[in-house]
Amino acid sequence: MTMELGPRKPMLLVMYVVVICVLTASAKKVPVQNIGPIFMFGDSTLDVGTNNHINNCTAWANHPYYGIDNPETEATRRFSNGVNTADNIGFKDVTSACCADKTPQG
Questions:
Q1: DSSP H helical segments within the chain, as ranges?
Q2: I need a surface site. Which of 38, 54, 60, 87 has the fewest CB within 10 A?
Q3: pLDDT-wise least confident of 35-49, 67-81, 88-102
Q4: Does any domain span residue 73?
Q5: What's the number of domains the chain is made of?
Q6: What is the pLDDT of residues 6-62, one digit of tens each?
Q7: What are the angstrom distances between the C-alpha of 96 and each of 2, 53, 72, 83?
Q8: Residue 80 sits in which domain range?
Q9: How far is CA 36 from CA 12, 45, 90, in A?
Q10: How high is the pLDDT of residue 102?
């Protein structure tokens, strides 16, 4: 069974796009304000394994395959080679994961 598009659906899509474009173009520019610190608690979308300073922790990300995107090709000690959700909120420029503290603790 195929779903046929009636003559209304493409027209609704075009109208929707036009309305979004008009609203975007007519929106007032709000000056950028400084926002205080944000504390975020959550699951693996927020925590990428930066647990290097926990004594007796065996879940470190210090294996070579965790640093394959690193220009220096060494482990980044994070379970993510990129930025996560928390890194993207409120920051214009985010320091790369490869610049994290790499000194083993414990």
A1: 8-26, 85-88
A2: 38
A3: 88-102
A4: yes
A5: 1
A6: 667 788 889 999 999 999 888 888 787 777 777 777 665 566 666 666 777 777 767
A7: 47, 19, 12, 7
A8: 43-89
A9: 42, 22, 10
A10: 54
